[in-house]
Amino acid sequence: MRYLIYSFFALVFLACGEESQNDRTIDIFTDEETSLKDEEKIVSTRVLKELKNASKVVYALPSPVEMADILHETKAVYDVQVLSNPASTSNYVTDYMRALNLGVYFADLSFTSMFDYPQEAMKFMGSAQAMSDELNIQGVFTEEVMMRLEENMSNKDSLIDIVSSTYVDTDLYLQDNERPIIAKAILAGAWMEGLYIAVNLETDSNRANVVWEKIGEQKPALSNLVNMLEDCNDNQFDSLVNELKTLVNIFDRVELNYEKSTTKSPEVLNVKISEDLFRQIQKKTSDIRDGIIN
Length: 294
Hints:
Layout: H1 2-25, H2 31-60, H3 64-72, H4 95-114, H5 118-134, H6 143-151, H7 156-176, H8 180-199, H9 208-216, H10 219-231, H11 238-251, E1 255-260, E2 267-272, H12 275-293
Antiparallel strand pairs: 1-2
Helix pairs in contact: 1-2, 2-10, 3-4, 3-8, 4-5, 4-7, 4-8, 7-8, 8-12, 10-11, 11-12
């Protein structure tokens, strides 16, 4: 995901650079050229604003790989049975549902790679490839990528790198080809699946609080996700946004407090979440996720 953030900042930098150069040379244009330049500057300003907003959302939402890594650190027990069905690709017949479930498959692929289930990872990579083909996303799930995956099935770190780069390449392809709705649907599906897996991880009583706190930390990310989808102004997201807002209301009871630390780290995040609140988050998250995959 950090590669994606860097790409956004690079695009922002380029947009700013072009605008400054236009300011320095505008005096040499005719009135007609000046008018065209003004239009371009309006477009550049809009694009720049969209990129800045997108970079904030991307920063706030962990990628599927990052979400898997966060939960892997808790040493929770991972059960592949909670994942979606990799054979369900034909059930999704609209681009919107395909995009949501491509995100789901990315999350499942990330978790199977992170928790060392290479055979399952191969299945989900195949599902993601099939869904990508349906969405006409080209040049990402190449034969070379699939061969690398097969060759590195026993190397968890390499698998994770392949998944991460494939996810980023998919997003960049969609941004380059002006398909932001599909890109955001993938992001939404991936984040929801990651949260769903998180709330359904098996933990012993001694470590349950650790997992609950990691889930509570997603409170700002959820709000950013809702804002991002609302900004799309696309009625395809209406039902999902309404469901997510209900989840936001539940998450609002999670208390996040930053406390000063005596160590080198300036602040420590303190998360207050009860078991009852966790169960409510678990229930609503599962309901939303089931609506995506069914």
